[in-house]
Amino acid sequence: MVMTPANKAILEITPYKGGDSKLSNVDKIYRLASNECPYGPSPKAVALMQEIASTSHRYPDGGAHELRQELALSYGIEQEQIICGAGSDEILSFICAAYVSPGDEVIYTEHGFLMYRISTLVNGGTPVSVAEKGLKADIDTIIAAVTENTKVVFIANPNNPTGSYLTKAELAELHAQLPKHILLVIDGAYREYVDKVDYSDGCELVASGNVMVTGTFSKAFGLGGLRVGWGYASPEILDILNRIRGPFNVSGIALAAATASLKDKEWLNKVVEENNKLIPYVTEQLEKISLKAYPTVGNFILVDFGEDDKAIAADEYLRENGVIIRRVAAYGLPSCLRITIGTKEDMDFVIANLTEFMQS
Ligand SMILES: Cc1ncc(COP(=O)(O)O)c(C=O)c1O
Asked: How far does the centroid of ligand 1 lie from the alpha carbon of residue 356, in Å?
């Protein structure tokens, strides 16, 4: 068959491999590979989705007015400066489509989210991965990598899969040091989980310049299956991104569920509280079996097995017993595995299995 040749840059892309969700050998599966919320969506959001399902023949509100209004209220930001997307992945792809052309460089850190590289390549740009220090983004290294071709810098804060974060002061420092024509994107997919006093999602930097903050409903709000995310930036940036956005890019059910989830602070608080209670517990249990768990402020934990083969063997052992977690070799961490923080029962099951594995 004669095929139309694909764009050359596309052939450099290794397709993003999401966390698996199926295993054939077991009855019960523990899905801890994709940083999903183990408690599900807010029951109020579920009730609303059921109620409005029969109106699905109508197109959604293309301007996402109610959701943007609720986001503005919840995060203390300007409604007119918010754009919604089919997951925050779509917002990230809008950014690259708008600002990255062949010859342009896009900086992200070596253990940063894989979609930064993919979206850059899709648009013919050059991905520039810079070293981290102690599994944390390093401002000096980022600044040293800037060239006259740099267009965008992506920072996930907190970062997936390391679980580390830049403080408010460090973010401000990075912003201050970056040349003003470079767009700084602060990806806050896990922001809701962070309860550190020195943390900021970076929204305060938007007023002063070339900064875009992104967020998602896929993690703490438990709506990964619906695909809703958002971005916050200056009216000038929004004007550009809205030229790319499809007219009805977020479905009506997704918009309604996201809005209801934002209003249900009680559910969100419960989800975050349970997660943050489990992190020290899981860390301690892992240390008891001589596994290094890196500090995390997200809903996942990075566990170091010391050797690449041992991490692979642990992953296989867990799979045989029904637990799916995430290999992170593609993130430059081949001796590690990333485990999503599930329920207490999920975590006890994982720890029991890892204990057996370490003794075998
Ligand atoms: C750091 C980071 N950013 C963005 C995303 C994209 O999430 P979504 O497209 O579901 O909003 C993820 C998903 O895992 C992530 O880990």
From this structure: 32
